[in-house]
Amino acid sequence: MEEFSARTDLASRALGGGVVFANDEFFAAADHLVLAHAPTFTPRTFDQKGQVYDGWETRRRRSGSEDVAIVRLGAAGVIHGVDIDTAFFVGNYPQYASVDGLATEGYPAGADLADAAWVPLVPKSPLQGDTRNLFPVTDRRRFTHVRLTIYPDGGVARLRVHGEVVPDPALLPEVLDVAALAHGGRVTGCSNMFFGRPHNMLMPGLAQHMGDGWETARRRVDGNEWVEVALAAPSQIAFVDLDTSHFKGNAPGAASVRGSLDGDWFGLLPRTALNPDTPHRFPVGQSGQIASRVRLDIYPDGGMARLRVIGRPDRRILEENFRRSSA
Questions:
Q1: What does pTM read for this prediction?
Q2: What integer is the mean pLDDT of 179-205?
């Protein structure tokens, strides 16, 4: 069950996810559900409505029924599992919850989704308080929205929707960052992630601080650290961006990038010196080389804020993935 939680959080605000409807958020706003950072709590911190919670909290119901929040996924895709995190909610968490999914085109308003063709993903299930409640999902279709229903009321800190990104090829340019999480890139291997997870390098936008990147422990033996990334589709690679922003006393001394299409690795960028706190862009050794995976080696260790792999993806593969998951 833990395996799916290592996948991309499709609902994360960092990818553009947002709450488009909540029937009640008296004590705490439903927008907290999709925040990327872990929930926090400061005891005896009160406002005019009571203890402040970093989560969604509804009022106490005095009759039957339930409370509902609808989330537009930041990246549409196939859901492998959901995490209904009730962190810090102990005497006020819901007894039960269920999750439904929806695939729709365009950008419908939350009020227009009440009577949509929702698909059950997680049946009504008991929850525990102050706990990550993990539920696998077996439906392998592509979804754009999820609906969290809690019974009868209470508080949920975060709703994480873990899965694989499946972008709509019709909405993608011809040349793009084929390593980006938002386009379907994903980390498949890493030598060390002591201070920061490598998937941070594939997030949208610029890194905000040093903790918003990949950083290894200090290496005390021979060798070097590395990370491997599966690209959105086999792609003709033109440029790689290695951004060491915010890493000043702990940037790698050098880096290299290799590509692979059928299991054999070939050079894209030879071992090249890097500067601290600097966005670097490098043309690949032979523009137009096709790769389905890339491997970034850093020497000997350190931190990288962002990795971008700019290329032209195989549209047929993107379209096949989209059709298969939309059936």
A1: 0.93
A2: 96
